[in-house]
Each structure stands twice: as C-alpha cells, then as structure tokens.
Design goal:
Number of helices of chain A: 8
Number of domains of chain A: 2
CATH topology of the largest domain in chain A: 60s Ribosomal Protein L30, Chain: A
CATH class of the largest domain in chain A: Alpha Beta
Oligomer: heterodimer
Radius of gyration of chain A: 19 Å
Number of domains of chain B: 1
CATH topology of chain B: fumarase
Helix content of chain B: 25-40%
Largest interface: A-B, 52 and 49 residues
Strand order of the largest sheet of chain B: 2-3-4-5-7
Bound molecules: iron/sulfur cluster
Chain lengths: 278, 186
C-alpha cells in the first residue's frame, strides 16, 4: 500500500479550483480560435473575438474567466493500493473552501429551498471510482449554471431509436438558444439507467474537445449531431451564425431491454477542466 | 462589422427608441446590478408600497453577480447572467421607468411586450467574457442588500461597456433575425 496524505489532496484541490477558473485548457482555446476563423457571421466573429480576448486576459492576469466560477464537480480515480490517512471527501471540501477563498472565486452554492449560500462553495459533488494502481487522480470540472440549467434527460422508448435520440438532442439545443453561452460542447449519455446516463453525459464533457468515441457507430452519430446542431443557426451567444457547438461527445452504456435513457449535458465555452495525479 | 454606437446611461427616451436589434453599443455612465434575489426584494418593496433603493427612471440594470474583488481592485470578473430568470419581475420595473437591461439569453413574451409598450431596450453582453467586461467598470459601490454578497445591488460607473442590442422598442429581435439568417433547413 502507498500512503497518501489527505493534506496533499487538499492542497492540490485548492490549486485546481483556482487554475481551472483562470486558465482555459489548450483544447478549448484552440477550438475557439479555429471557430473564429471559420465563422461567417460578422457579429458571431466579433463575439468569438471577445471570448478569445477574455480568456487571454484571464490567463495573463490570473482572473476568473467567467464570474460564474461554478459548483465544484470532481471525478476521482482512487488506486486500490492507496492508503489515505483521513476522509477523502473532507479533504476535497477543505481544498474547495481554500481555493474559492484564496482565489477570490464566487461562492455559488446554496440550500436548494431556503436559497441560503453555504458561503464557501461546498459541498463539492464528487464521483469516485476505484481503479488499479497506487495513484489518486483528481479531475475538476467546475460547472456554471447557465449551461447546466439547459441540460436535459429523457427516458425514450426503445422504438424511438437513433432518430429519437437525434431529435431530443437537437431540440434541447434549440430550446437552450443563447442561454448556455454558445459555442457549446455537448456531452451526451446514451443508455445505462436514469442516473448512469446523466453521469455518462457529464463524463463525456471531460474528453478533450473534439476527440471521438472509439465506437464507429457513435463517431457517425457525433458527426451527424454536430452538423444538425450547427445547421440550427443559433451561433455565438445566440446572435446567429455557424458555430453553435464546437463538438458533440457521446458516451454509451448497455441499458435495460425496455429503456433508452438519453442525457444531454451542455458545456459553455468556459469549459474549465483540470486534473492532477498524486 | 458596423461601428459601435456610443450611448450614455441613464438612457434618454430618445436614445432608447433609436437603438435597433443588432447594433453594437458602448455604454458609458451608470449601471445598476441586480439578479433574481435582488429583484425579488425590489418587487416585495413595491408590494409593500415602499420606495426602491435607487431612482429607477431611465436606468439600465445589468444582470451580474461578480466574483469578489481582490484588495485594491474595483470589482472582480463581471460578465452577464441569464436574463430569463428575471422575466417574472421585469415588466413591473419597466412600467416604473426602467429603460434598459443587459444580460444574456432570450426574454419572455411579457417582457418583450413591455419593452415595446414603454420603449425600452434589452441588450446582451458576451456571456463568459467576464475578465474583459471588468475592464470597462471604473467604480462599484453597494447601494442595497449587502447581505446578498455577489447578488447585492451595486452602482457601477462604466466607460465603453460593450453590449449588443437584442430587443428594441420597435419589436426587433436579434435572436430571431440571426437564426433566420444562418439556419440551414435540411
Ligand atoms: S454559461 Fe458558462 S460562460 Fe456563460 S455565464 Fe455561465 S459559466 Fe459563464
């Protein structure tokens, strides 16, 4: 067994919270630059220009690129040969607490009914899996509400098949319009159960922008959906244009013979992801 | 791309009436910030027959909840939030003289009707461009509801704040026009 101190986890999580908020990953930034080159709408080009200038300022000055620094979502892969010296979730929450304070990030988490802010952006949402090895891998994906609120899940009838999936995904994006700050990336979960499907959609967003699913059938579906979505004409910020989505990422899982769950998780252009391995 | 229109805030009726969907604007002057929690309190004040904490005539409300400022900074990152969450409260404020709103995303039919009836204007800033927009904010002070933290009402002084007109007083709608122009029907 390898001993890992929860203090190290807290320190890493603190740093990840801050760097995710301020420093856009190269996959997203290059996708946005490429989109500006291709965009036909003058206003759309202008919007993409502002988005690019914004993440450049944020990175250079260490400022949050968006004021909605999100609810803190983590995917943790815990090696089965790791021995932790304390509770994992407490360590993560303490890191969030410090990161949001030290980084001057907005605390955006509240009681669902009373709407009273918890004051420190905790509790974090943590998805944990046990894997081989003696490492702890922590991925952070802070999520703003503008795009999360436009996400949808539907239990389709199996008879609706691929056509049903397409129309549900495209309709979700059409309804979202300019709200989720397009250009967006779409995480689509297909199959599993009600909750598995939602997690698949979220996980799909962690893939570097534009990477393809290994399954050729899904690659085709990703390409078809991307074309259909960009044909909607919503464009950057919904002002009209060719770039509504930068990519569609699908993750699939076997499901019950009587079900076809589909989840669409929308990610805005502030697609903030960071990871660390301890 | 056409040149931006420079406008001053508070907005005159004349200026509000002249702006057209799709115009790029640079706003200089005063903006008040408010999100849903602050709107709820404003409406509660009106229901109780009390005065609003600022004179709303001619004003522009910016829908924003900034990040906390670092020591020595005027304000943190400050991009627009989704305007639709304010739809339930907005017509009441427009009736009282609110002339402009800056946010992101589409408005309800009630809000659009009210904009047309009272010759107001709805503008969008680029969502997520919070570090860029921050540069146009020269002064910020809390005028009400400090307990709401990022959702408190702030009076901002801005110079060349960048926005785009979405819904104008004549019923023009950039979201509809844009989609119509770039939609491909397969
Ligand atoms: S949807 Fe994304 S870019 Fe837009 S305001 Fe929310 S977090 Fe920021």
């Amino acid at each position: 067994m390898r001993q890992v101190s929860t203090k190290d986890i807290t320190d890493k999580v603190r740093d990840l919270c801050i760097s995710a908020a301020c420093d856009l990953d190269p996959d997203m930034s290059s996708a946005l630059r490429a989109a500006r080159e291709k965009e036909e709408s003058p206003l759309g080009k202008e919007v993409l220009g502002q988005i690019i200038e914004n993440f450049e300022i944020a990175g250079a000055e260490g400022l949050p690129m968006c004021q909605d620094t999100g609810i803190s979502v983590f995917f943790v892969e815990l090696g089965r040969d790791v021995a932790l010296d304390g509770p994992l979730y407490d360590a993560i929450n303490e890191g969030v607490r410090r990161g949001y304070k030290d980084g001057y990030l907005r605390k955006s988490v509240c009681h669902p009914l009373k709407r009273i802010n918890t004051g420190d952006n905790t509790p974090a949402i943590v998805h944990t899996s046990i894997v081989e090895g003696d490492k702890v891998k922590i991925k952070i994906a802070p999520k703003g509400a503008g795009s999360e609120n436009m996400s949808r899940l539907k239990m389709l009838k199996p008879a609706e098949g691929v056509e049903g999936i397409k129309s549900f995904v495209v309709e979700t994006v059409r309804e979202a319009g300019g709200n989720p700050c397009p250009p967006i990336v779409l995480g689509v979960g297909i199959g599993g159960s009600f909750e598995k499907c939602a997690i698949l959609a979220k996980k799909a967003l962690l893939r570097p922008v534009g990477t393809k699913n290994p399954d050729p059938d899904l690659v085709q579906l990703e390409a078809d959906l991307l074309r259909m979505i960009n044909d909607l004409g919503i464009g950057p910020m919904g002002f009209g244009g060719r770039t509504t989505a930068l990519a569609v990422h699908i993750e699939a899982h076997p499901c019950h013979i009587a079900s076809l769950p589909v989840a669409v998780n929308i990610q805005c252009h502030a697609g903030r992801h960071k990871e660390a391995v301890i | 791309m056409s040149e931006p229109v420079r406008i001053s805030a508070p907005l005159s009726d004349e200026m509000a009436g002249k702006l057209r969907a799709g115009d790029k604007v640079l706003i200089s002057g005063v903006l008040y910030t408010a999100r849903d929690a602050a709107h709820k309190r404003l409406i509660e004040l009106l229901d109780a027959g009390k005065e609003l904490p600022f004179d709303i005539k001619g004003q522009i409300i910016y829908y924003v909840g900034p990040t906390p400022e670092r020591p020595g900074q005027v304000i943190g990152s400050a991009g627009p939030t989704t305007s639709g969450r304010m739809d339930a409260y907005t017509p009441r404020l427009i009736e009282l003289g609110l002339k402009g709103m800056v946010g992101k995303g589409a408005r309800s039919k009630d809000v659009l009707d009210s904009i047309r009836k009272h010759k107001a204007v709805y503008m969008a800033a680029v969502g997520g461009a919070a570090a860029l927009i921050r540069r146009s904010i020269k002064k910020a002070e809390i005028v009400a509801y400090e307990d709401l933290g990022p959702e408190a009402i702030r009076r901002l002084e801005v110079v060349d704040f960048p926005a785009i007109v979405v819904n104008d007083a004549e019923g023009g709608d950039l979201f509809l026009q844009g989609v119509q122009k770039y939609r491909r029907v397969s």
